[in-house]
Amino acid sequence: MTTRTVKRDLAALEASGLPVWGRTGPGGGYGLAQSSSLPPVNFTAAQALALSAAMAAVGEAPFSDSARSATRKVLDTLDPLARRRATELAHRIWVNVESSAPRAVMSVIEQALVDQVIVNLDYTDARGGDTRREVEPMIVALRGGRWFLVAWCRLRDDIRWFHLSRIRRATATRRPCTGHDVAEIGAPPERARPVGI
To answer: What would the pLDDT profile of 115-144 be if each residue is shown by its tens digit?
Structure first.
């Protein structure tokens, strides 16, 4: 890192309103004043309710534990009046969500998707037959109100859609996926889109 880069970064911090201090000599350097903090994030009752409703509607979605934790953090930032209002409004929204895979299965799939490692599945097919598959997770998709793991099936040497509620057991391996691209899945269904951030 060059001196010029450090000076540019310090200037950006100061321009954002953060108090930066500097000290010369041995033990010197730069830092943020201890009293500094980020400005508070203010949510309205409606915004907090929107997050809670979205979380409830996709309660069995991938990474739902993390989403619930994030929603609780948002609710903790509300002032008491806004929190009470959001709680009152929450009783005016009902959801009925089909269950997905057990949490133990979802946790394995979520981490394998992040790490891009091969997963062994114990799976029940549409005809009720039990099968064992070794798959490379590509995406998780919500289609027709049901969650699917879309993966490269090493048994079939092709892409397959695995209904999450039919996965009885999932075990991640340490072997990396071979690099199948999401584009190989083909065109997404009409109105389907990535989540986006």
So the answer is: 999 999 999 988 999 999 999 999 988 887
Asked whether the beta carbons of 55 and 68 are under 8 A apart, the reply is yes
Listed in sequence order, the residues at least 6 apart from 186 whose beta carbon sits closer than 8 Å to its beta carbon are: none
d(CA 122, CA 161) in angstroms, rounded, equals: 14
Provide the residue range defining the domain that includes 143: 103-185
Of 60, 90, 120, the position where a domain reaches its end is 90
Number of domains present in the structure of the chain: 2
Specify if 172 maps to a domain. Answer: yes
Would you say the pTM of this structure is higher than 0.70? no
SS3 label, residue 64: helix
Q: Are strands 158-163 and 146-153 parallel, antiparallel or unpaired?
A: antiparallel
Q: Phi and psi dihedrals of 189, rounded to 5?
A: -55, 155
Name residue 135's beta-bridge partners. 119, 153
Given a contact cutoff of 8 angstroms between Cβ atoms, the answer to whether 58 and 142 are in contact is yes
Mean pLDDT, residues 61-65 taken together: 77
